[in-house]
Design goal:
Blueprint (H helix, E strand, L loop, with lengths): L4 E5 L3 H13 L3 E5 L2 H10 L4 E5 L7 H11 L4 E6 L4 H9 L4 E4 L4 H38 L10 E4 L2 E4 L4 E4 L2 E3 L3 H12 L5 E2 H9 L5 H18 L10 E4 L3 E4 L5
Parallel strand pairs: 1-2, 1-3, 3-4, 4-5
Antiparallel strand pairs: 6-7, 7-8, 8-9, 10-12, 11-12
Helix pairs in contact: 2-3, 4-8, 6-7, 6-8, 7-8
């Protein structure tokens, strides 16, 4: 059995010790740091699976730690803790690559649920990347040898010039690969399933992010992911092509044509 390693960071010793105790009792290997700078040094030298950090700290705040940690370990699962949550701060955390965002005081079961979900998401992404690498190498070898020819399958969802491989979780636009995060892929998949139909902020968050929230929170959160998705599709900031905003409702996809 593999024991996952968690790094807990908080400059308040009582909270830090509480978090360490709760997570250790759940069967994880836990180490702790009292500031972001110390945590960053530990992340550079030890193989942690998840970082659980407070946002507001004096030496190095949690958002800075998140940004720096992702440079060294892009696949690191990250959960942020704060006592002063706002919608913009939650959106900023998600935009920087956090898996979750918890408000103090937090219950034991909320901490453990967030950790389990973040690690599961991380492991799914790692397995998917490994399978994609193997599939690409295998397909490339067969195509080069003339053993097989490219063909479409029932697992491909086509919407205009967008093609989604629903088994490999790969997306292309005009045959150009789109380097999407899992959330961005799920968002695009949901839009492609109902081209031309306005989908609400709430249902898009449910499909893309896997949780429910208020309409205002959903609008802010999904707007961030739409912005990132538009950029990766080569859509200019003031350009309505492909993904249109439906005022007061949500978004709809207009299938792109060459």
């Amino acid at each position: 059995m593999i024991i996952r390693k968690v790094l807990v960071v908080d400059d308040e010793i009582v909270i830090r010790n509480f978090l360490v105790r709760v997570i250790q009792q759940a069967g994880y290997a836990v180490q702790s740091a009292n500031n972001g700078r110390m945590a960053l040094e530990m992340l550079q030298h030890e193989p942690f699976d998840l970082l659980l950090t407070d946002i507001k700290m004096d030496v190095m705040d949690g958002m800075t730690l998140l940004n720096e940690a992702k440079k060294y370990k892009p696949s690191l699962a990250v959960i942020l803790l704060t006592g002063h949550a706002t919608v913009p701060s939650a959106v900023a955390a998600l935009r920087q690559g956090a898996n979750d965002y918890l408000l103090k005081p937090v219950k034991n079961e909320e901490i453990l649920s967030a950790i389990a979900n973040a690690l599961e998401s991380r492991e799914r992404e790692q397995r998917r990347n490994a399978l994609e690498d193997v599939a690409e190498q295998f397909a490339g070898t067969l195509l080069h040898s003339g053993t097989i020819q490219p063909q479409s399958t029932k697992h491909v969802l086509t919407c205009g010039n967008i093609r989604l491989d629903t088994t490999a979780y790969r997306a292309t636009l005009n045959d150009i690969f789109l380097d999407l995060t899992p959330t961005e892929y799920r968002l695009l998949h949901e839009l492609c399933r109902s081209p031309g139909v306005a989908l609400s902020y709430i249902e898009l968050v449910q499909s893309a992010c896997g949780y429910t929230c208020s309409r205002q929170e959903a609008r802010e959160i999904i707007g961030t992911h739409v912005l990132n998705l538009r950029q990766k599709m080569g859509i200019q900031p003031n350009q309505a092509l492909y993904i249109e905003s439906v005022r007061g409702i949500g978004y709809r996809l207009i299938p792109p044509r060459s």
